[in-house]
Amino acid sequence: MRLYGEQGFARTTVDQIAEAADVSRATVFTYFPTKEDIVFGDASLAIAALADLLPGPGTVATVRAWLGGLAGWIEPDLALQLRLAREVPSVGARRLQLHGDFEQVIATSLEQELGDHLAAQLAAAALIAGLRVIEETAVVRMEREQRALDGAEIDRLLDDAVRFAEAGISALAR
Question: Which CATH number applies to 39-173: 1.10.530, 1.10.150, 1.10.10, 1.10.357?
Answer without folding.
Answer: 1.10.357
